[in-house]
Amino acid sequence: MTDPVVTATEVADALVGDDGAVVLVVSGGQHQVLRLSLLGQAIREIAATGVPMSRLTDELVGRFGGAGADPAADVVALVNQLESAGLVRVDG
Amino acid sequence: MTTQTVTVRALDVLVRIAVGDPGLLPTIETAWHLCAADGDEPDTEVVLADHDGSADSVARSLQLLTQSVTLAAIGVRAGRDVMFHAGGLSNPRTGAAIAYVAPGGTGKTTVTTTLGRGRGYLSDETVAVTADGAVVSYPKPLSVRRPDGVLKDETAPGALGLAPACAEPWLAGIVVLRRDLAPGAPIDVVDVPLLDALVMVAPETSSLARLTDPLRRLADVVEMAGGLRVVHFAEARQLEPLVDEVLGSSR
Looking at the complex, does the CB of residue B199 fall below 8 Å from at least one CB of chain A? Predict the structure, then answer.
């Protein structure tokens, strides 16, 4: 079974707060500020230089606990959302 | 035809306007009377678009001119100030200023013309805030939309009873306008947490990414102004108590 690697993408700027973060994305001369939840911010932080999905899940469960029945599926769903927003890359 | 020029001060940027039709010079000078500048070396230049002589064509040229001057000034100030797509009024005695952020066509000019008398007119279009919280005024002609909703008339502030800011303006409050209530509904003012505020106002900023530490700069401006509030309203007059509250602030 493959273990895809999640890597945070470069953003123009980021600002972290008590309840998550915002990031500035610039594309085609247009800028956009996107909001990240605490979990989303943690994923980007852990995946700064690339991390296998399984280890990412373990790290998140370690930080936040595994509230759902299937933490691995929850993390995949979150990562997919971030990937759709262009804030992480998933390889493999 | 000889091109003549008139220089205006927009966001503290000297913009030289080249006017191919000298017959329009008095119209331009009147409309831009609060931005009049002497003939010093300009920072940038724009050209008045040609027109066919009809009233609508002239109005269109003057409307485009205002947009050109604004863009030129923003281009010069990019990377220095946080610039909002916003109208602004100030307390003529203390300089306390409010910036009301909103996309085009959603109420900035109406709020300015409705509440501007007796207050300092800063802009109906662009408000720039320096690193220390000073507001750079831009008392441009007001772009008043015609009833047909297509063209705008560039109207001299003085003709609407507006006067420039006397005291140096500083940002005392910032709000986002949402004219989304039915007539007669009470105004609704909602505080926005900082990170959400940045997401909300960012689309109404210019050249944000050109700043050093842009998100920190934007956050500093919002925090200096006491946080962001969203104002849901139906009629511009409903904003008067809020404007009075902000303009009554002291540093």
Answer: yes
Output DSSP code: residue B125.
Answer: S
The per-residue pLDDT for range B72-112, each reduced to its tens digit, is 999 999 999 999 999 999 999 999 999 999 988 888 999 99
Domain range enclosing A85: 5-91
Query: Going from the N-terminus, what domains does chain B have, and what CATH number goes with each?
Result: 4-77 (no CATH), 82-247 (3.40.50)
**pLDDT 10s digits, B188-205:** 999 999 999 999 999 999
CATH number for position A49: 3.90.930
Q: Closest to A22 (Cβ–Cβ): which among B195, B205, B213?
A: B195
Cα–Cα distance, B98 to B120 (Å, whole number):
10
| CA nearest to A36 within chain B | B195
> Residue B131 — very low, low, confident or very high, per pLDDT cuts 50/70/90?
very high
Locate B17 and state its tokens. Answer: 């306007």
pTM attached to this predicted model: 0.93
In this structure, what are the phi and psi dihedrals at residue B156, rounded to the nearest 5 degrees? Answer: -60, 130
State the greatest distance between any 2 C-alpha atoms of chain A, in Å, as a whole number.
43
Contact A31 B194 (CB under 8 A): no
Query: Nearest CA to B176 among B67, B248, B85?
Result: B85
Q: What is the CA radius of gyration of chain B?
A: 18
Which residues on A lie below 8 Å from B202 (Cβ)? 24, 31-33
| Burial class (CB within 10 angstroms; exposed 0-12, middle 13-18, buried 19+) of B107 | buried
